[in-house]
Amino acid sequence: MKNKFNLHVISDSLYFLKIIWKIHPRRVIFSFVGQIFSYMEWAFFSVVFMKYLFGAAEFGRGFPETAAFIAISMGVIFLTTGFQIWMKERYEPCTDPLLYEKLNEMLFEKATNVDIACYEDAAFYDTYTKAASQAYDRAQSVLKNTSSMIGAFGASVYVVATIFSIHPVAGLFCFLPMIGNFFFSKVINRIEYEKSMEVIPYTRRQNYVNRVLYLSRYAKEIRMTKIKNVLDDTYEEAYGGLLDIIQKYWKRLCILGLLRGVLCFPLVFEGMWLFAAYCAMVTKSILIGDFVVLANAIVSTTWMLTSLTQSIARTYQNGLYARTLREFMNYRAQIPEDWQGIGVPEKVETLELKNVSFRYPGQEKEGKYALSHVNCTFTAGERTALVGHNGSGKSTLVKLLMRLYDPTEGVILLNGVDIREYNLQEYRNLIGTTFQDFVLFSMSVLENVILEKLETEEQRKAAMEALKKSGALEQTEKLEKGADTILTREFDEKGAVLSGGQAQKIAVARSFAKNAPIVLLDEPSSALDVTSQKMVIKMMRELMEKGYIKSMLFITHELPLLYNVTDDIMVMYAGQIVERGSAKEMVFDPVHPYSHGLMGSILVP
Asked: Is the Cβ–Cβ distance between 463 and 482 less than 8 Å?
């Protein structure tokens, strides 16, 4: 079983090489050529050059012949060294960014195609973090190690064969460092891998604290509260955890490193030199030139074979990391973002939840459901409000409608057809959504509205119209570059920093930019002052009268919105819809059982 696993590790390691070959095959070829040149140059000088130079007198070669050989050797070395320098200073710096970009594109593409549920799974998030943090370095390591392995193997075969040809017993000294180094390296690399895996959760915590302290969105809370003390404790705990891991492994690593350093090199070198001297001076079985070759060759072949075994060991180590990347890349989403399905209908008539229940992944043992047997129908032309306590299931219901999750039980139907049958992107495009926890990107206002690259005049017009509908156009036109102004100052010192209410209007504009038949707004006025709320209400009325908003579902606690904008209200409690009725009777009818609860924001049935 262990050997089978080792073969898998090697296969996983080569997985990186295939990725690099696909990105830039010439980079792979040049890397192999460079490493082969490097090792053959080493073998040439330690064996061929020394044997020719010190054997010149013994074989009767003259000075002109020897000088010509040296000159030709220097010319060849000049060319190979020039190639290696060009690789290091010119070619690799130019191709490294491409490798980095393409590898990250691959990871980003995969990350945007995995299920939303994965981001709420700590195990998956650890896998993604490991894959993202290690991919580029490990891909580089695989390329270097594989090419080094080929170069070292070819050069070592030649040097070892030369040593055996001089004296068979001398050749045996070559394999002692290789065997010892292979054993020690495999053990050390395994321990290093275990150590690095234990380190990741602590580095994640430190990185989180670093990110929080640098991002502007956390700045006010940090300065106005004592939360920094908690962050400091988190950082210190992570630091302590790192120290504990170092304490756990350092003795084993030091002892193994010391044993490898002494047993694999000095003892072998001295043994070989002593044996060669005995053969040249006592038994006279080898020439002085051969003695010089053996003295140099044992050092060269030891380092080359050591490099070979280390490359093999690192390939094993890289394979362990590669397994993480491979697992991530091979993940199959339950809701594939590229799901084709059937085309959506031209006209939306009904959106129905039929006996829908849902529980989040990891809650199977608890038996806890976020939604339980929900039945409701949204009809075209209706404006419905969804209200309820935090944790009542509102956000979960929205996620199911957007098909960010699929129901655990039951079905959601669009015009009587299971939404899982439809093309996923086409279905989502039917719903213009603004989430309460929206984010603004360091892009232009227009790109923040359409949420894609601005390329056509039609996109610009659609975004400007959406800004007008959300009430954000006037404030946008006052910015330095109007709707082309970059939001946030992360990359542009002249970028605009918007207030909460201004930002929310930009977010609401996103729903209108899609020109979708269904608009879904999550607390669309939560960051607005009273005046702005009235403007939102007025704007929504006008949009409904003009037919811009055909069907709408929004989550809110603002009573004016409930009364003036909605056709009816759904009350959620403990994952169920416990009441549905008109705004007039449910909010302002003093005898209605939910009237007092809604007005006081206390939704207890």
From this structure: no
